[in-house]
Amino acid sequence: MVFDRVGAPLRAAELPKPEPGPGQLLLKVRACGVCRTDLHELDGEVEIENPPRILGHQIVASVEGERHLEGEGPRSPKEGLDAGTAGERGDAAAGPRVGVPWLGWTCGECRFCRAGRENLCERALFTGRDVDGGMAQWTVADARFCLPIPEGCPDEQAAPLLCAGLIGWRALRMCGDARRLGLYGFGAAAHIIAQVARWQGREVYAVTRPGDTGTQSFARELGAVWAGGSEDPLPNELDAAIVFAPDGALVPTALRAMAPGGTVVCGGIHMSDIPAFPYELLWHERTLRSVANLTRADGEEFLKLAPEVPVKTQVTTYPLEQANEALADLRAGRFTGAAVLVP
Ligand SMILES: [Zn+2]
Ligand SMILES: [Zn+2]
Predict the structure, then answer these.
(1) Are domains 2-162+313-342 and 166-290 of this chain identical in fold?
(2) Percentage of residues in the chain with pLDDT exceeding 70?
(3) Separation of 114 CA from ligand 2 center, angstroms?
(4) Domain segments of the chain: what residues?
(5) CATH number attached to the domain at 166-290
């Protein structure tokens, strides 16, 4: 499914099977999660510099080939890789499973890379933006940036862990030891992070669009102590909040809910303008910050932790060729949890 230009739907096309370059794996896509960032790309809010491009950055795939960094040429996928994580489909011939996240490549040399902050790398390449992603039957990815998929986790349920889960985890870490945690926008990321936060012993307060009672009861089922619309008063002050929804007006709303010293973390890659607000909302050592991208360390940490919770994702699956329907349903809020494409 190919992105051609802003404002156009993805186009179904038959393309040649990609060839892995040096250091890359040839991957057969088993599932690919749909993310709000994909909508931002379609709308031009996140720019794709060199279309056509295949979107999708929450890829669960089996390794079907590999090419060494030295360029020795393709070799068997079984050598040097743990074949014990082959997926659930009983496909004995399939190679080991890996996950491909948003962070596709970093330079390793810039001041951010050298300081363990490769999420901020000045020359980073992102999956499904700068390099082709997983809304396809086949893809390639730099082996060093692929992540292990938790054993026994079905492909479709693992896919949303790779962005919604990872970015959500990074955002949750920025909340420190906050006990009362607000989640503004209860989509794919929040439904995962609510489970982790509950497991950590925090109280979760879920804030949805006004009147979205379906999502509010979904949040309560996942252990939220309170769920309501963004116009409803909260029963308590919050110690931290993560704003996942791309609506800038939620930032002063969340700040207004903060106890002194509280932190508001913006978890999205794009947001509408934040309206002006009185300094009083930030006063008393409240913090407002964003999270950007992920590091490989975040990925390894979270994918180890997810089965311990255990995180159970709620997914709606679509055949790959219905990617446009999945994106439209995400935009309209027609499902709870996450959408996943299956080739
Ligand atoms: Zn994403
Ligand atoms: Zn760098």
Answers:
(1) no
(2) 93
(3) 7
(4) 2-162+313-342, 166-290
(5) 3.40.50.720
Mean pLDDT of the 131-151 span? 97
Q: Which ligand is nearest to the CA of 108?
A: 2
Query: Per-residue pLDDT tens for 214-242?
Result: 999 999 999 999 999 999 999 999 999 99
The answer to whether the beta carbons of residues 44 and 38 sit under 8 Å apart is no
Dist. CA 74 → ligand 2 center (Å): 28
Nearest listed ligand to the Cα of residue 121: 2
Ligand positioned closest to the Cα atom of 166: 1
Q: What architecture is domain 2-162+313-342? A: Alpha-Beta Complex (3.90)
Long-range contacts of 107-114 (CB under 8 A, 24+ apart): none
Q: What is the mean pLDDT of residues 20-45?
A: 97
Provide CB contacts within 8 A for 109, sequence distance 6+.
Answer: none
- Which of helix, strand or coil describes residue 339? strand
pLDDT value of residue 55: 98
How far does residue 139's CA lie from ligand 1's centre (Å)? Answer: 17
CA of 128 to the centre of ligand 1 (A): 10
- End-to-end Cα separation, the chain, in angstroms: 10
Give the number of other Cβ atoms within 10 Å of residue 156's Cβ: 21
Query: What is the distance in A from the centroid of ligand 2 to the CA of 121?
Result: 4
Of 309, 338, 316, 308, nearest to 195 (Cα)?
A: 309
